[in-house]
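LOG
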Amino acid sequence: MGSFKGHFLPGTLFLVVGLWHTWCSIFRYGSNPKSFRVRVWNPVPGFNGRLKYLELYVIAIGSFIDLCIEFFYSTHLKIIVHGVLNPSHMNDFEHSGMLLMFFIFGLVALLSEKTSYLPLPEGALCFVASAAFTAEYLLFYFHSTSHKGLEGYYHFILVVLVGLCIVSTIAGALMPTSFPADLCSGIAIALQGLWFYQTAFVLYGSMMPDGCQLKDNEISCLSTGHEIRGELLANFQLFVQVLSVLVGVVGAYAYVQTKYGHSVAINEDS
């Protein structure tokens, strides 16, 4: 069984990084399509370069803080019981493992970009990121918590979105000049963050479907009909999120083309 904060905090991290990645992908392609390259992270311009690596710090520090919450706070420091990992908190340990992978990605990327100890090409960093998403996928697919019913359906959609993150990130490594691969990666990460939010508010917040309730750490529905209605609502919520993100992407692309597209075309003609 999860919790509101257990979905809200990682959702915030994924949403912020996904939206930033999506905007940067559109901006870089709209500014100069011929020099476009896939990037697994995007530097923040301006500020005399002081915020250049902000995205990587957000990933590393954000995942580390969430890791500490899951591993220490949620377990009440009762990590080892009778010489083994506390079986009552396996869910928290699994989440910690997922967050550890994203912390490792942020740390590896920072070492690669800021030092000479671990120089890695962009494609290799894409594979490191895909490994983190793969660990997340396996965690949710083979979860120690048996997600059933409405809760299971929401987590099934989450697994699908994580799978899209894996595919798009690997595609970026294999096709380093592909704008669609880079854009899809940002969109998939943003959708994953939005779905974390949706899961938090529906299953553990104020948006629980009629006829279903959270009781004794389990989500149950009064009848099969209520459960099916909840799943149909989940489909509609996903549709609204996908539509909203696509509208935002089209709007951002139109804005970048209006502001930078003409100047690029003029430079190419001259």
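LOG (cont.) second protein
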Amino acid sequence: MARGKLKIKKIDNPTARKVTFCKRKNGVLKKANELAVLCDAQVAIIIFSPTGKLYHFSSSSMEEILERYDRYCSSTSLDNYPFKISIGRKLVGNDKIPILSKEAAEISRQLSRLRGEDLQGLTINELQLLENSLCNRLNKVMEKKTEKIMEEIDRFREKAMDSERVAITSSKHEPPAFSVFL
């Protein structure tokens, strides 16, 4: 029995949309794998779900396929293709390595100072700035901790009130206890 033609538009029902996304994503990834195996093609698929979760498939190294794509795009005009794809990837060249190494070393030094290590070469002003920075960060942590504690207290109060309501309701429905005096 043949299926009817499905009109392609956004699915309004969020639950149905999630189910359709999951099924179609699995179908696309399965077809990509079949194409790679049957035809010995290099296939790479990158999918981001509406929630931002990454799904990907590559028949060989994803990096190699994307580099090949970049080379192809730079050497060929894509004006003849119905879908134009651009990748905002930036490969790090050899000239950037020393700069990135210096940045990494500086970030590592700052991190060790925040842990209270490697403080010997600092001036009084630098130590004061570090102390102020740490105090500000500590205050933010303490504020967040206080907020969480207050949320916990509110949740416990709500549970206690619910328990009290249940106890009152159940005591109203119980028959009164009779005592017999002899």
